[in-house]
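Final report, closing paragraph on structural work. Over the funding period we assembled a curated collection of sequence-structure pairs, and we close with a single example.
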Amino acid sequence: MQKQKLLVTGGAGFIGSHFVDAALASDYSVLTVDKLDYCGNLLNLEKALANKSHKFVKGDIADAELMSATLKSFKPNAIIHLAAQTHVDRSIEDPSVFVDNNVVATQRLLEAARVYWKGLRGEKKERFRFIYVSTDEVYGSLQTKDKPFSIESSYRPSSPYAASKAAGEMIALSYWRTFGFPVIVEHACNNYGPRQYPEKLIPLMIDRARSGLTLPVYGNGENIREWMYVTDHAQALLKVLQKGRVGATYNIGTGEEVANIKLIRALCTLMDAACPGLLPFEEAITFVADRPGHDFRYAMDSVQSLRELGFAPRVRLIEGLHKTLHWYLNHDEWLQSVKSGVYPQWAQRYGK
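Its predicted structure, as stored:
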């Protein structure tokens, strides 16, 4: 039988590259489309690029002509839309970039995909899927004793990033409701693991600790996040692709909530053990002015979604932190390569 074909947008990024690896391991044929901006890196696809079942196209999903031609030539059975600007701090600095990339570009991709889908016939058209990968941040913020967000919860995004993802999600679902275009939406909690760009919390802490710099923590560090190891998310996305209902929304989380300061202290303890002679890392923690509109807590009720998909996360947080730390310690070449671009200018905000 011919392999099922997946078009993955943003596949040279953090989550995208892990999904590409998981899809190839599950015997799919994959085409990655990525414009290779600051957080897209072909080193993330090193394994995939050596696989004859993988192809790569450098391009912007906002380029309707390119995407239409790519869809026509590759003929995918599904699109997994991961391409996005994702960092809250950057969205505060320049919201327009997030609107352009997460809203406008998403609509252009949806339209190109809808035209392609309309031209399909029979089972190919019936089984085609467009999976929009969103975030728990669209729901807004919770307090300590609030119940986790469910798929029925209202959207109250706080940051331009979260608002742009909510907008893209609403446009995607409107294509389902108006045109019958087979969209599925997935909300994921905070991801972490190998190959994450070092502007994000965990790799930022690892990189700065190794460099003998301060470990900046917003506010009092009590903000709470739910965490999922990236390979678990990749497997969950495969389940969404295989079992998800058209028009449905799935919340994918782990139930492992932890305050940022507790997470960082645990990471410091692991660093103390892994890097003897540079102790103790916890002394480098420095509290800095809080981020504007900083959500206090994210948490999702994932029970219904996980049960329907027949999926359960495998990697517990402490195990995942240990694996993540050792990956970064053993992949200095990767870290230095991604830090050679725009990262140094962005990181100057934290000083020494």
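The first strand starts at residue 5 and ends at 9. Residues 95-118 form the longest helix (24 residues). We thank the funder for supporting this effort.
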